[in-house]
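Structure ticket #2291
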Amino acid sequence: MENIIRYLEGENKKIYVTKKGCELINRAQEMIARERAVIREERNISVPGCQLQLLDGETIKALVTIIDDEYCIFVNKGIIEEQKSYLEDLNWGFISDKRQIAEYIDATIEYGFFFIVFHEYAHIFCGHVDAGLVIMRIRKLKNVKRICLQ
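Resolution: structure written out below.
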C-alpha cells in the first residue's frame, strides 16, 4: 500500500474515503472475487485480482496501472459525486415520491460506478495493461492535448 500512496503522491492525487465510496468499492471487489473464482473453477484459469481505490478527483475518470506487480484501478470521486449532483438537479416532476427519486439516483450512480470499474478491469483481464496498451493510450492522449494547446 505504501508504493500505491507514493505513486499517487507523484501524480498529485490522494485516496478519498466516504461511506458510500467504501460500500461501492467493497461490492465491486466482491464481484471481481466471485468472477475470478468461477473462472478458476470452471476453466482452470487464474485471473488476476486488483486493488481498487477511490481518488479525490472531481472529473469523471478512472485508470488502471501496475504498481509493484499489482494491478490497481483508481476511480475519481467525480464518478459518484458529480453524477449525484447532476442527477439531483434534473427535473423529477414526473415522480412525486422523493424516496423513489433518491433510490433511482443511487441506483444510477451504482450502475455508472460499476460500469467504469469493470471497463478498467477489462483492460487487466484482456491483457492491455501487461501489453502496455493502456500506457500508450494515455501517452497518446497527452500528446494530442499538447498538440491542441500549441
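Closing remark: Confidence is low (pLDDT under 50) at residues 143-150.
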